[in-house]
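In line with agreed milestones, the collection of sequences with tokenised folds has grown. One record among many is set out beneath this paragraph:
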Amino acid sequence: MFRAILVEKSESGQSVRVAEVDEASLPVGDVLVRVERSTVNYKDALAITGKGPVIRKFPMIPGIDGAGVVAESAHASFRPGDRVLVNGYGVGEGHWGCLAGAARLDGNWLVPVPSNFTTTQAMAIGTAGYTAMLCVMALQRHGVAPGKGDVLVTGAAGGVGSVAIALLAGLGYRVVASTGRASEAPYLTALGAAEVLDRATLAAPGKPMQKERWAGVVDSVGSQTLANACASTRYGGTVAACGLAGGMDFPATVAPFILRGVTLAGVDSVMAPMALRREAWQRLSRELDTGKLAAMTREIPLAEAIPLAGELLAGRVRGRVVVDVTR
């Protein structure tokens, strides 16, 4: 038996609780992982609260991220005792996830935990930080170098934004952080932001073409914010879009793309190819300042992940939260 957050659905609606689960109930998979740490992402918060159609079948253990130790393996790449992590692949949506003491997973979804990271650090990064690195890689593939100009990071106080700022600043970029929480300015500048903008300057409808400012953008907000970011990106610049915290719509025109040669690069973390995942995690192990990672992270026990979900959707969670599933 192991403890897990269990989301169930009946005629009266969705319910969520910490439950004792029999290991025999775990779904099919060729690797059994004793999960040590997980985290709560935006998608997990939607699943736990029921405010988004994330869960594809019930009952479900949420948790799209997990890190722990292999207990049993029929997969050629992993042996008992190996430290592994998982991000995405439908885990916590259609396959029981990692807000639990154990998870049975497909070995093809697993990445070795970098040798210089603990499982706590791996989950302090989680999908949010891994996605931030994929965004940085996308900007670099499209020629956005530190000398090209400012890089805007939207949703800056959230998980993706916090790690993106730390990574970009560490690589020598001048980072401008956009947030709706003015009180977080000291936190953002400590991570490496050179300037902090009120998100209201990007959230209102704007002109199709605006003053050129950004050499690159990491956007986790979407909607009008993404449209304004594109409209104010410099000639030949790149916008890496990875989220929809502000909405799924994109009220923009083609003008920035056909008149300034702006690239809109979509960044997906859920089904990213394994080679790209491994590259992202190896770069994180080399390039992310672990002191800054610690400064943006706090740890909670399993049961506290349930109320945290509502706080996250309300925009009241800063940085990263690690869930210690063992307590």
Observations:
- The longest strand covers residues 2-10.
- The mean pLDDT is 97.
- The chain has ten helices and 15 strands.
- The domain at 2-113+296-324 is CATH 3.90.180.10 (Quinone Oxidoreductase; Chain A, domain 1).
